């Protein structure tokens, strides 16, 4: 068979979301200085007129081999079978400098957490893989969904000499300040619930005011603790509302027609299930809201109470908050660290 350099079968390279990105590590010290231009990348543009025929119809011999890369589409969740091959640095187990403590220590080490750096990593890796596989003339198509789709589209724009095309799905490519309304994401989440049940939408909307009013009353926090089965170690109005907001937002993000386990174990059509819980509760607002949140946080029924002081970052959202803020507001990494900014995902 002819060498793989002769193939014109597309080398399909997945850029699916955070969890399915490429496992890369800090660049050599030669390229670590922030602001230093990246080294040029060799072109891999295909010149059809120079290629020999790869299929002989008369002899029915095929001079290329199609291979497939199996990747679980787990979106954000860092399950072992979803990240055993590729990750973007700073997410999952791809932590540069050996530990999170060092990687997030200051602007110099944290500054590599950006989409621009991720794209440069992809470009270097793809070129190296093709060179080591004697496939430098093989075309590459990048694919992605959600954040991975944004990377795919940006990759095609920034490195057109490395890939011949990009396929992107569910890609909010224009969702940036001064381009799209800052309320666009929350509006979509709202319409997801409103489209399922007008009453469900109204109850959730009015529940924020009811929670605020309850907090102002003597013993109000204790009433909320009991209503929402909160563990006795901590509760406040903000921690409770943030906890509820995350349940509604994440459920809207994973409102699939089949059971899933991306961010949490969920049934098929989870928004439908949430709204049914709210509607079935009638005038018992807190009961309905609790039952809805319970679908996201405790669908398996294993939790006896909910710990609002649990600051674990199972989905890498602390890094995501930093990356999004830097991308949207153009804020320098050193300013972020100087004032110790913390950004919750539901505020983005």
Features:
2 domains; two-stranded antiparallel sheet; Four Helix Bundle (Hemerythrin (Met), subunit A); 13 helices; disordered C terminus; disordered N terminus; mainly alpha; three-stranded parallel β-sheet
Read across the widest sheet, the strand sequence of neighbours is: 1-4-5
Shape label: elongated
Please state the average pLDDT score: 75
User: Strand-residue fraction?
Assistant: 5-15%
Distance between the first and last residues' Cα: 52 Å
Biggest sheet features: 3 strands, parallel
3D structure, described in words:
- There is one protein chain.
- The chain is mostly helical and 348 residues long.
- It folds into two domains: 4-169, no CATH class; 184-297, Four Helix Bundle (Hemerythrin (Met), subunit A).
- It contains 13 helices and five strands.
- The protein has helices at residues 80-83, 100-103, 107-110, 115-132, 147-158, 184-196, 198-216, 220-227, 237-253, 270-280, 285-297, 317-329, 333-339, and strands spanning 11-14, 55-56, 61-62, 140-145, 165-169.
- The strands form two sheets. The protein has a three-stranded parallel beta sheet.
- Helix 4 packs across helix 5 (147-158).
- The longest helix is centred in the middle third of the chain and has 19 residues, at 198-216.
- It is elongated and about 70 Å long.
């Amino acid at each position: 068979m002819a060498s793989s350099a002769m193939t014109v079968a597309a080398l399909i390279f997945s850029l699916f979301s955070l969890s399915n990105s490429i496992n890369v590590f800090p660049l050599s010290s030669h390229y670590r200085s922030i602001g230093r231009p990246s080294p040029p990348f060799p072109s891999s543009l295909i010149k059809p007129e120079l290629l020999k025929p790869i299929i002989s119809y008369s002899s029915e011999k095929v001079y290329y081999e199609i291979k497939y890369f199996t990747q679980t589409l787990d979106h954000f969740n860092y399950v072992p079978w979803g990240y055993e091959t590729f990750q973007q640095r700073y997410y999952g187990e791809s932590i540069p400098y050996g530990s999170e403590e060092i990687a997030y220590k200051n602007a110099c080490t944290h500054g590599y957490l950006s989409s621009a750096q991720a794209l440069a990593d992809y470009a270097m890796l793809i070129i190296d893989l093709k060179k080591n596989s004697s496939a430098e003339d093989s075309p590459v198509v990048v694919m992605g969904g959600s954040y991975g789709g944004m990377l795919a589209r940006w990759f095609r724009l920034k490195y057109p000499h490395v890939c011949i095309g990009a396929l992107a799905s569910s890609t909010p490519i224009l969702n940036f300040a001064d381009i799209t309304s800052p309320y666009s994401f929350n509006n979509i989440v709202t319409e997801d619930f409103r489209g399922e049940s007008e009453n469900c939408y109204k109850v959730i909307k009015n529940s924020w005011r009811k929670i605020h009013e309850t907090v102002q009353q003597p013993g109000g926090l204790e009433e909320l603790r009991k209503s929402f089965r909160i563990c006795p170690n901590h509760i406040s109005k903000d921690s409770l509302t943030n906890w509820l907001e995350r349940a509604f937002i994440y459920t809207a993000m994973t409102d699939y027609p089949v059971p899933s386990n991306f961010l949490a174990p969920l049934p098929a059509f989870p928004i439908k299930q949430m709204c049914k819980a709210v509607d079935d509760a009638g005038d018992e607002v807190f009961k309905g809201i609790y039952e809805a949140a319970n679908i996201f946080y405790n669908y398996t029924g294993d939790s006896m109470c909910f710990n609002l002081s649990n600051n674990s970052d199972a989905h890498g959202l602390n890094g995501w908050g930093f990356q999004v803020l830097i991308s949207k507001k153009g804020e320098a990494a050193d300013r972020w660290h100087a004032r110790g900014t913390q950004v919750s995902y539901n505020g983005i």
